[in-house]
Design goal:
Blueprint (H helix, E strand, L loop, with lengths): L2 H26 L1 E4 L2 E23 L5 E6 L6 E2 L4 E5 L4 E3 L4 E6 L6 E2 L6 E15 L1 H4 L7 E5 L7 E12 L2 E8 L11 E18 L7 E6 L2 E12 L3 E7 L6 E5 H7 L1
Antiparallel strand pairs: 1-17, 2-9, 2-13, 3-5, 3-8, 4-7, 5-6, 7-9, 9-12, 10-11, 10-13, 11-12, 13-16, 14-15, 14-17, 15-16
Length: 263
């Protein structure tokens, strides 16, 4: 009979130990970050592709054949240079200076109406085209500031503006005008694009990764409390608090697995 109290005591000690371990692990699983007040820039991010405005494609209106090719793919041509001689004596000449980027047929081969035979592109004026989701397209308009980063050119950010936004086959396209792209940037290359859609000089900011279903866990006066909040501008890491009981003196509890996202 004396064993019963001993067993009960051991069970109580075990329960307390497990509870203590659970609390200790819970504390270790979170870190505390203070809200901050400062500027925030809200942006829309996308993957863009470099394009050129100046593209010429040679096409014919009737079935014919190539009598002579004067150029090869990769050749640089000047305005007025001969490109192709067709059977019957018809010439195609370059409408502007540029690079021959495509030849579909060889000498002696038949070509068919409206099939591209040859393409010339001019790289003097390049722009970037970005495909947007519907919600993003609603917030993008002409003349917004843009930053562009090419993965192959590290440490260099290029600036530009939104030239236009329009629908194409039920997709939403933004064309970005970029200042002073280097000569190694060619049509078809991709770039990370951020379009600035809003800016505030002073806002109360909390880590975006700390917000779950419109709620945030804070520590105030040594007690953990859950607060509902409404956010405004978001820059990918921080979110502006526009409504909710959150103070600069609070500590925000953040899971350690998410901590890197808020730094």
């Amino acid at each position: 009979m004396k064993k019963k109290p001993l067993i009960i005591s051991l069970l109580i000690v075990g329960t307390i130990t497990i509870a203590s371990l659970t609390l200790w692990r819970s504390n270790r699983a979170t870190t505390k970050i203070a809200p901050r007040t400062g500027p925030i820039v809200e942006a829309i991010y996308g993957l863009g592709k470099v394009k050129t405005d100046s593209i010429f494609e040679a096409k014919v209106g009737i079935i014919t054949s190539i009598q002579k090719l004067f150029v090869q793919e990769g050749d640089q041509v000047k305005k007025g240079d001969r490109l192709i001689l067709l059977s019957g004596g018809t010439f195609f000449t370059a409408p502007f200076s540029g690079t021959v980027t495509f030849i579909a047929f060889r000498e002696g081969e038949n070509i068919f109406p409206q099939v591209p035979v040859l393409r010339v592109e001019n790289y003097d004026h390049l722009y970037i085209e970005v495909l947007l989701e519907q919600q993003a397209a609603l917030r993008v308009h002409a003349n917004q500031n843009v930053k562009v980063l090419f993965e192959s050119i590290r440490g260099k950010t290029y600036t530009g503006t939104v030239r236009s936004i329009f629908p194409r086959s039920d997709e939403f396209i933004a064309q970005i005008e970029i200042e002073s792209l280097p000569p190694e940037i060619l049509p078809g290359m991709t770039a990370d694009v951020s379009i600035e859609i809003g800016r505030k000089a002073k806002a109360l900011l909390v880590p975006l990764s700390a917000i779950q279903s419109g709620r945030i866990l804070i520590e105030r006066d040594g007690e953990r409390q859950t607060r509902e909040l409404e956010i405004g501008a978001v820059d990918g890491q921080w979110a502006e608090v526009i409504k909710g009981d959150v103070k600069e003196s609070d500590l925000i509890l953040l899971k350690k697995s998410l901590e890197k996202d808020s730094n």
